[in-house]
Amino acid sequence: MRISEHSRAVVLLSGGVDSTTTLAIARDAGYRLYALTIQYGQRHAAEIAAAERVARAFRVDRHLTVPVDLRAFGGSALTDDIPVPHGKPSDPIPPGIPTTYVPARNTIFLSLALAWAEVLESEDVFIGVNALDYSGYPDCRPEFIEAFERMARLATRAGVEGKQNLTIHTPLIALSKREIIQRGLDLGVDYGMTLSCYEPSRTGAPCGTCDACRLRAKGFAEAGIRDPAVRAA
Questions:
Q1: Can you give the pTM of this predicted structure?
Q2: Mutual orientation of helices 105-120 and 142-155 as an angle, nearest 10°?
Q3: pLDDT tens for each residue of 49-79
Q4: Which distant-in-sequence residues (6+ apart) come within 8 Å of 225 by Cβ?
Q5: Which of 23, 64, 31 is nearest to 188 (CA)?
Q6: Distance CA 87, CA 210 (A)
Q7: What domains can you pick out in the chain, each with its CATH number?
Q8: Could you say which of 49, 102, 188, 228 would form a disulfide bridge with 192 (CB–CB 3.0 to 4.6 Å)?
């Protein structure tokens, strides 16, 4: 069922496979798109550039990039002097919470999305969390999303005045990477403009050996499709 053409959705956009697919799903549902990218002190600017490419390609109504420097806290291989884990492409991803976990990242991101949604008079926030491939990340799990959604309805003026009944949409949460990629391809997503790497080169080429690259490669391989971003790099 499609929603009103006037309905606005705030979509968290990193420029990777998951967030780009989520943006495509929101567009397919008929939402007006308001993309939100957080410049949180991650190791490279290539991720922000990828988000900008995606936002332009989707012709979103508005794309905001908000700086929130989480390097002040550190505690993650993405924001601190901690090595990014690498492995052979065929190696399995180790269980447990990896060092690439950024403390409270999705809590912070969703709080910013909630603030913008209230200003936009939007009741819909989309986030591309996935509990299947990233089960080690506590802020990608259904119970976290459900708890945040309950909290969000109590945290804003629009919520307590009955003007906003926020829904956090997680259309990828139970999908494999292969299923996510296939869903995006069905919606016409060009994954050549996306970036998933935790430690790309200065030119933006993916390393191919970090956890994100390996999960991405596995998804494309299982889908029987060559990754256009690797070909273009």
A1: 0.93
A2: 40
A3: 999 999 999 999 999 999 999 999 999 999 9
A4: 181, 185
A5: 23
A6: 6
A7: 8-232 (3.40.50.620)
A8: 228
